[in-house]
Amino acid sequence: MPRPGRVRPDGRIEGQQVADQTLRDFAEAFDRIEPPFTTEIRRIVVAKDREVILLCIEAGAQSIPFTCDGRPYQRVGSTTRRMAQEKYETLLLHRMHSRRRWENQPADEISFKDIDRDEVFRILSFARSVGRLQGPVGRSTVEILARLGLHRDGHFLRAAVVLFGKTFLPDYPQCELRMARFRGTTHEEFLDQRQLRGPAFKLLDEAELFCQRHFPMPAKIVPGQLRRVEKTLIPVDAMREILVNALIHRDYSIAGGAVSLAIYDDRVEVWSAGTFPQGITPEMLTRTHLSVQRNPLIAEVFHRAGLIEKWGRGTNRVIESCVESGLAAPTFEEITGGAVVTFRVAAGSTARRGKVESKVESKAESDLDLPTRVLVALAPGPLSKARIAAAIGKRRIDGQLHDTMRNLVASGLAALSVPDKVHSRLQEYRLTTTGRGRVTRIRRGHP
Q1: pLDDT score for 399
Q2: What is the pLDDT of residues 13-31, one digit of tens each?
Q3: 234 Cβ partners below 8 Å, 6+ apart?
Q4: Taking Cα atoms as reference points, which of 270, 286, 346, 271 lies closest to residue 320?
Q5: Could you tell me which CATH number the domain at 359-443 has?
Q6: In the CATH hierarchy, which fold is given to the domain comprising 176-344?
Q7: Is 285 exposed, middle or buried (0-12, 13-18, 19+ CB in 10 A)?
Q8: What gap in Å lies between CA 260 and CA 207, rounded to an integer?
Q9: Rounded to 5 degrees, what are φ and ψ at 38?
Q10: Average pLDDT over residues 63-75
Q11: What are the DSSP E strand ranges found in 264-306?
Q12: CATH 3.30.565.60 region(s) of the chain?
């Protein structure tokens, strides 16, 4: 590389004579550098017959690292040295990931009919309610997805399929959730098993319902309070955080992979395909660390929906929540190419019920009438009719459930989240004060 000018030891610029050959030398030197870049050459006169050449290079972080004659270099103090191979490979991985990720590639096989419009508007309503999507976003599904960065140049991106796909084609087997409740502490015998494919937010809903179905809800009387206080096996927010992390950080390029939820008598495990994101180790997750996102487009939509922050504090909050609840901090591991988070609980606690636990939970579902089962399902929080059906063990919404929901609302035990639009796609049901009182009496063994 030709020298663009001379600088004295005291820092004073001396300059040099610049001829046409000097500029040709620069052009030849640029040809030896990869990847190609755009540069502007400026000639600055500093004295008679002496100039300094100023190079203005346009290249972003997505171009790093550069090589000269096929070799990478780095600046160390006042010297230029060969870059270590390990550092060079790491920078290459970062460059490849920023430019070409699985999530930001066009899903050419997907058309408008494959996108769940209702799901798009459901998540849009969440984003607006938490104040993370303000201003006009458009009225059509395509306009909304374009605002979210999921539709570009006339194409839906793969991230749009993960988040809002309606029908999952054979091309997207990775959009899968596997859930199992095992007897004992090994995976030899299933008590319950489900395997689903669907958009990410619905998979999250299904995972939370599965936990709700299989986690006991021990309760106790707290001195000074005229009510029982219930505490889930694992804090709800902690469990949700780990499930969300599994969905947004997994390696979707692994077509045969999935997010897995396994419940044993002594532990709960959440698996996701792929190791932890580049630059993150399991040990780092237990202390302050930067947020590194493998799938930033997918993570951004979860952020807008209010389900994650962007400050790398998620796992720290999980640990704090578990410790405050009397549980051991979860462990983070990489096992055979997968990321695993394990919550340890008292042996047998997922199998047995507490002595003060509600009598409703100790009875078989068949012993309870349908309205009672629905009220109990609504106790943790609002649910859509589809999620109510899943929570009480129905495979679909049938006429009996329609009648039950109508009667519960009419009797004042349940209320609609969107009362002005009974058939709204965003409709959910919640317990009223009267309904909560009824559930409390049922759990105390009174009709």
Answers
A1: 87
A2: 788 888 888 888 888 888 8
A3: 211, 215, 268, 322, 325, 327, 343, 345
A4: 286
A5: 1.10.10.10
A6: Heat Shock Protein 90 (3.30.565)
A7: buried
A8: 9
A9: -100, 135
A10: 82
A11: 267-273
A12: 176-344
**Helical (H) or strand (E) element with 342:** strand 338-344
- What is the dihedral sign for C-alpha 324, 328, 329, 330? negative
Residue 106's pLDDT is 93
Least confident of 131-135, 138-142, 357-361: 357-361
pLDDT at residue 229 is higher than 70: no
pLDDT at res. 214: 87
Tokens of 398: 């049938």
Question: To which H or E segment does residue 413 belong?
Answer: none
3 state SS of 223: coil
Helix axis angle, 236-249 relative to 200-214, nearest 10°? 140
Q: Poorest-confidence range of 69-73, 94-98, 158-162, 414-418?
A: 94-98
**Phi-psi sector, 165: left (phi>0), alpha (psi -120 to 50), beta:** beta
Give the amino acid at 233: L
Q: Which residues pair with 228 in a beta bridge?
A: 221
Q: Distance between CA atoms of 316 and 296, rounded to whole angstroms? A: 20
Ramachandran category for residue 157: left, alpha or beta (phi over 0 → left; psi -120 to 50 → alpha): beta
Helix (H, G, I), strand (E, B) or coil at 68: strand
Contacts of 158 (CB under 8 A, 6+ apart): 102, 103, 104, 105, 106, 107, 172, 252
Q: Are 266 and 348 spatial neighbours (Cβ–Cβ below 8 Å)? A: yes
Alpha-carbon span 220 to 247, nearest angstrom: 34
CB 40, CB 49: distance < 8 Å: no
Confidence check: pLDDT of 360 > 60: no
- State the average pLDDT for the chain: 82
- Torsion from C-alpha of 136, 139, 140, 143, nearest 10 degrees: -10
Is pLDDT above 90 for 143? yes
